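#dry-run=false #mode=assembly
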Amino acid sequence: MTEPRRPVIAGNWKMNCLLDAGLDLAQAVEDGAGGRDCEIVICPPHVLLHPVNVALEDNLLGLGAQDCHVAEKGAHTGDVSAAMLADAGCGYVIVGHSERRVDHGESDDLVRAKAESVFAQELVAIICIGETEAERDDGRTEAVLAKQLDGSVPAGSNAANTIIAYEPVWAIGTGKTPTADEAQNVHSFIRRYLAEKLGDDIASGMRILYGGSMKPSNAAELLAQADIDGGLIGGASLNAGDFHGIVECLPG
Ligand SMILES: O=C[C@H](O)COP(=O)(O)O
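#status=ok
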């Protein structure tokens, strides 16, 4: 029998928080953690990873980064490797966020290579996929997601080293979300597609998170869906009360 999937609530701080504010936020998130059986992950900007890791003493939170380079080291000015992120205390790395796909022209092939570099450090890759509003309006959501899954998810992905984050681009930071039924249908499609690609056992154990304007007022309905295993939270993760308000919406 397949193990139940442990929910994950991950906060992607994006390019927010200077040192003092970041330490305060991390501490407030840790202070409120521990009440639910789930993984709570915070993903501060790179420069805050080490100080946050040093400051958090209770080990209740997972630490994640927002990106990495494909190489372990070398002449890549301004980049950070997965090895460095592991060294800074990370257990997770987000790869392929739509903001990086757009702002930095990241392709599916590059995202897959980044995920492989994350696996090489024995970290968990949070691989982001999602359709734009135009793609959705054209009825191409499933085709777009299938292509992203084919291109971005390594053959070596499994339920332990990979989390998928479905983030409809039109929902990110806009206050718009799909209905819970619509989100469930997309997550179910993703799981079925992963089953074809990686096998039933892996797909049934892999966490698939929803991301895009999730907040305490809409989280309960989304998180109650059978194939939604948590959330990747942007704006609401910058307020510890809102972030924990989402954690509290987990069923059970
Ligand atoms: O990584 C997080 C997502 O982009 C969601 O951001 P948001 O919650 O601000 O819409």
